[in-house]
């Protein structure tokens, strides 16, 4: 049997109706502890702001908390929306985590705001154009020690990526952070992220769990133009992670019932009415606008929902079709205990 891709977890610290925000963060902590015990490779948290649904606005703080409660699993951002932050500050935050807890952290970097326009302005959000974003990633890489500022052999190559206005960058130091070489990943839901990942030689995580439309095109661009000789390169060859919505239950029927919470969430996000997760229902037609059905099909197509055997079969076929090296799974259930159970069932089935 071919080697199965590595399994990881993406968490946004969701809040269910009737649950406090503290309880939501406590539920994420319990999931991370269990994921560590079950052998999952990574546990990433995604940056979102001004959200009544997700409590993952301060990812570096949450990851430091999880590091205190876990011992093996890699922890990371899935991702840090870099235009919302100064690269130096990101290097300091994640460099501090690496200094405290060692080589257990990843920096997944994205361009999206992770919020609405008003909150983006409040964040003093910078430019997200590909050229400026690419320069910010290269600046961050230098702070962390991925690009040696005093190495003449890399200076010319570095100039291809970093804005000439940053010529004095070698006089700025991220302390702690300098030399920690926290691994960088590029996140994307379109061909833009694929281009940046390729030119910088970074591993690429595609958001197929919510935006699968451009996946084939994006992966083709990434693999065709991957620059292993870039001064920022993290890997010698293209490495792909893909997102999948997953919900595992003892039976297909129960899994589909529990997954109705996630479908309600998708509908609420589409209509700008997102709030706490809602209880599962046997009658989605009673709670959803029928006009959303066509829109939701595309997202649900990258969803593995069912018994352990059903989910494993889907994930194996998906991974083989797109030749992915790693699967990062997102699970939403109204009851946090059902989310942990889903990951327990998946881990057991995947290891058999």
UniProtKB/TrEMBL annotation:
Xref: Gene3D superfamilies: Luciferase-like domain
Cross-referenced Pfam families: Bac_luciferase
Organism superkingdom: Bacteria
Presence of the UniProt keyword Oxidoreductase in the record: yes
Entry GO terms, CC: cytosol
Domain Luciferase-like: 12-318
Keywords: Monooxygenase, Oxidoreductase
Keyword Flavoprotein: no
GO molecular function: monooxygenase activity; oxidoreductase activity, acting on paired donors, with incorporation or reduction of molecular oxygen
Family: To bacterial alkanal monooxygenase alpha and beta chains.
Name used for this protein in its record: Alkane 1-monooxygenase
Organism: Bowdeniella nasicola
Upper taxonomic lineage: Bacteria, Bacillati, Actinomycetota, Actinomycetes, Actinomycetales
């Amino acid at each position: 049997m071919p080697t199965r891709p590595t399994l990881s977890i993406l968490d946004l610290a969701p809040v269910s109706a009737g649950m406090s925000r503290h309880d939501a963060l406590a539920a994420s902590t319990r999931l991370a502890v269990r994921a560590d015990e079950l052998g999952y490779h990574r546990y990433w948290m995604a940056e979102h702001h001004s959200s009544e649904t997700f409590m993952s606005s301060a990812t570096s703080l949450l990851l430091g908390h999880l590091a205190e409660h876990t011992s093996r699993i890699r922890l990371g951002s899935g991702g840090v929306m870099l235009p919302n932050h100064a690269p130096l500050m990101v290097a300091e935050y994640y460099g501090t985590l690496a200094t405290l807890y060692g080589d257990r952290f990843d920096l997944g970097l994205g361009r999206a705001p992770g919020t609405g326009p008003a909150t983006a302005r409040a964040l003093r959000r910078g430019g997200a154009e590909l050229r400026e974003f690419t320069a910010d990633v290269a600046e961050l890489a230098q702070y962390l020690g991925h690009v040696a500022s005093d190495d003449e052999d890399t200076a010319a190559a570095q100039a291809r990526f970093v804005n000439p206005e940053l010529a004095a960058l070698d006089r700025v130091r991220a302390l702690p952070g300098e030399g920690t070489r926290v691994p960088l990943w590029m996140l994307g839901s379109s061909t833009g992220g694929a281009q940046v990942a390729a030119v910088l030689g970074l591993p690429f995580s595609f958001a197929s769990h919510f935006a699968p439309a451009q996946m084939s095109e994006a992966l083709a661009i990434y693999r065709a133009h991957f620059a292993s000789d870039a001064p920022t390169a993290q890997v010698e060859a293209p490495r792909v992670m893909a997102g999948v919505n997953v919900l595992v239950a003892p039976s297909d029927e129960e899994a589909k019932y529990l997954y109705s919470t996630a479908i309600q969430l998708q509908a609420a996000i589409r209509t700008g009415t997102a709030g706490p997760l809602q209880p599962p229902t046997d009658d989605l037609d009673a709670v959803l606008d029928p006009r959303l059905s066509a829109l939701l099909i595309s997202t649900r197509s990258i969803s593995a929902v069912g018994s352990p055997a059903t989910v494993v079969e889907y994930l194996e076929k998906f991974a083989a079709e797109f030749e992915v090296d790693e699967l990062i799974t997102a699970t939403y259930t109204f009851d946090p205990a059902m989310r942990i159970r889903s990951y327990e069932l998946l881990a057991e089935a995947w290891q058999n």
